[in-house]
Amino acid sequence: MLSALLLFLLPVYADWQYRSRSDLAPPQLNITIFDHDKASTDYLFVAPFSGFPDNTLHGPRQAAPYIFSAEGDLVWSGYSIFSIWNANFQAAKFNGQDILFSFEGDHNPAYGHGHGHHTFLNNRYELVKELRAGKHKLSDKHEFHIKDEKTGLLQVYQPVPRDLSEFGASEEQQWIVNAIFQELDLETGEVLFEWASLDHVSPHESVLPINPGYAGSGYNSSDAWDYFHINSVDKDENGDYLLSARDAASVYKIDGKTGEVIWKLGGIPGETSSSFENVGGFRFGFQHHARYLWTSEDGKKQIISFFDNSAHGTEDKHGHLVKINEVSSGKVVEVNTETWEAKLLKNYQAPYGLLAKSQGSAQVLESGNVLVNWGSEGAVTEYTADGEIVFHAFLESGELADKVENYRAFKYDWHGYPTEDVAVLSEITDDGETQIYVSWNGDTETKLWKFYAVKNGSKTYIGEAKRTGFETKYKVAETHEAVYAEALDKSGRILASSEPAIAIQQVLPFKAVAAQPETLQPNFLNYFSWRQQI
Ligand SMILES: *[C@@H]1O[C@H](CO)[C@@H](O)[C@H](O)[C@H]1NC(C)=O
Ligand SMILES: *[C@@H]1O[C@H](CO)[C@@H](O)[C@H](O)[C@H]1NC(C)=O
Ligand SMILES: *[C@@H]1O[C@H](CO)[C@@H](O)[C@H](O)[C@H]1NC(C)=O
């Protein structure tokens, strides 16, 4: 009886979040650490999805790109605006305009690949463009990165047949992934530069050999041996690229003119080759999201950041096949091409023992704080530059949190001006009062809501409420059959008005509370009862 009722109640966890938008069931962040003074006030950008093969009753109920406030309140649900499977949701500038972009496409969790395109929205959440890889190739999910507001870096997993016998393959094992990246002109889609791993990096550099097949066995093109697995591309001011190659457990610097490897930072001393000696023998592996942070004037020193998974496994969480460190971390490393030493400057270690078998990102914010996203573990942590944890959130709550994953997370200052209508729900309570709920998906500017009753063609001001979050509530003592809401910004300018909403009879959430409190465990008090209204 007890478990039957719990099963019945828990899957509805995401319901009743927003009365004005009962169509939305966004993830509810479980914020476990929050230092309001030290955490960034920027918005959080994530695109969580379920790691279960079927996603019917799992969290997130609506896998999509989301913007949350620093407090964890919903700002924008991209559900159904972006569709199919999404990852790498970011804000950026394109030709001086604020845009959002996200990868949309097919997801192949067993091989950690995704095939699709990169979709741009403007700051009104309207479609601006869709960008695909050039030269008859399919863009992969892992990278899309805009440089100088003009060009885009993306990557491709291109299966190609080769004689792989020197790597221990049988005659039937002929397929290998050529890891390619392209730099495209964002206006025209023209390919400005293309680089292919098989031209420059031997499959001997892989830490996952073709057999026993942890990175594909090469029997056919969908099972191609993913010896390199690029998952990020950056470019510095000199025009040279930085690649993270997960299956080589190494970060590479690539000459932007010749495509040659300038240096390689190997993650596992003694196992991976490296241009550097890792001072103190620090190790990393299966990393993601390598970014240039700083270059010395003479170009001989560079500081880079990346997410160190330190574990390899598939996204279905079937164990850790390889483990380099006990927990995952965000790392900041200085490389010196005079002394050929690499120094670990910062190591932002995961709380809760998190070890991300796949995915992940580390973003160094302008303030110096660092946002680390724990990929397959469905959580984000923000650190001060010194490594103090000032924010931590699991990307879902309760039962729905199980196997929620998120490829990358970012924090940005963002201003959204939605073109969609303001949503209003107006309810008449049993006491004859009017309870109003208002929201405007994606809006960041409204500070005050004004409410008006509409009767016989004329409107009457009935009150106002400070915007409190995604949805703002306001109650008036009288019965009003129709109301509408007006959004005002910080200077009192009217941003939008809703359509008049015809009031409905109030329906309150069914809240299960203990029927016989004295006989139940305290934890279950909230789950049992007869109908009781909040
Ligand atoms: C490709 O190879 C894998 C591994 O041997 C196998 O499981 C799969 O069925 C093959 N697919 C096709 C289409 O032959
Ligand atoms: C939030 O996360 C903590 C730590 O894992 C967990 O103990 C707690 O139950 C979670 N709360 C909810 C509401 O999911
Ligand atoms: C509704 O408005 C019309 C035109 O202004 C007026 O003639 C009529 O008396 C009003 N009806 C009520 C019930 O107020």
UniProtKB/TrEMBL annotation:
PANTHER family listed in its UniProt record: ASST-DOMAIN-CONTAINING PROTEIN, PQQ ENZYME REPEAT PROTEIN-RELATED
Name used for this protein in its record: Arylsulfotransferase
Naturally occurring in which organism (per UniProt): Ogataea philodendri
